[in-house]
Amino acid sequence: MLEKGDNKEYLPIEGLAAFNKATAELLLGADNPVIKQGLVATIQSLSGTGSLRLAAAFIQRYFPEAKVIISSPTWGNHKNIFNDARVPWSEYRYYDPKTVGLDFEGMIADIEAAPEGSFVLLHGCAHNPTGIDPTPEQWEKIADVIQEKKHMPFFDVAYQGFASGSLDEDAFSVRLFVKRGMEVFVAQSYSKNLGLYSERIGAINVVCSAPDIADRVKSQLKRLARPMYSNPPIHGARIVANVVGDPTMFGEWKQEMEEMAGRIKNVRQKLYDSLSAKDQSGKDWSFILRQIGMFSYTGLNKAQSDNMTDKWHVYMTKDGRISLAGLSLAKCDYLADAIIDSFHN
Ligand code: PMP
């Protein structure tokens, strides 16, 4: 980019055209008919957070009666974002402490009970903070209920490629909804998968039911973005467009994500093996293997998490979440000792 003499002129409100094309194609697949038919309104926004915030402003303005339902628990900033945009929200059941797994029945019941036309916020993959994702069959059922209740699916995709190691596999949930012909909101982030945290690179995509609707949605998103931040940053958008547009760099990126995701899977396996070998209580630790992405919900409560920190110097969030990205194979045995001690004392 330096050699090419790229400058720092303003981008248009909607962002870098090459980035918007690349980001929609990564999300939906380059051959997706909704792209060919011009059904997708894509605006480059300020990473995942800014894209969620822009969509929240859109909901507040054009769906003033609607509420958003979010998973319990969820990424802490979701509540701030909808509070700030003055969009009412409530929670749907998601985490089941008994199984350290998904409360699927509770989730379906709560989505069903929400007022018709609610926005249902879903984590596209690698649910933060639990690491617990629905299975493909469960995604189908979630889509059934959302369709029946005329809700609007609203995906937060912050870890595409980082969860399974495959960009396509991690977009499975979003593509399933789109394939059904549903209108869908999707916020994307390149913080984790391309390490662009502070470049603030992401997008909001709205898949619409007709090209003229997509044009109008895009135009209204631009009207909202203009007084909020005027236009998005250029440098990181060029990084994404250049990486995706160059077969060698694109291949390198995909390979590195695969390695990263593979390392996290190895750490999960080793932690599970250590816990199973050391724990005499017969507790089933297999939930660790079923979780996906960089986080694991251990099921430790606040007092137990305090024990982890005070006695073992393992630093984690008080909801029992650990980041596997910060764990090495060599430390799994130590961590297993700490977890077992905290659980049983
Ligand atoms: N959504 C989720 C679920 C996240 O975990 C994060 C980052 N922690 C984001 C959105 C947004 O991150 P950013 O604004 O850096 O893209």
UniProtKB/TrEMBL annotation:
Alphabetized GO MF terms: L-aspartate:2-oxoglutarate aminotransferase activity; pyridoxal phosphate binding
UniProt keywords (A-Z) are: Aminotransferase, Pyridoxal phosphate, Transferase
Please list the GO biological process terms of this entry: amino acid metabolic process
Question: Transmembrane residues, as ranges?
Answer: none
Domain of life of the source: Eukaryota
The record's section on PANTHER family has: ASPARTATE AMINOTRANSFERASE, ASPARTATE AMINOTRANSFERASE, CYTOPLASMIC
The protein here is known as Aminotransferase class I/classII large domain-containing protein
Q: Which organism is it from?
A: Sorghum bicolor
The opening ranks of the lineage are:
Eukaryota, Viridiplantae, Streptophyta, Embryophyta, Tracheophyta
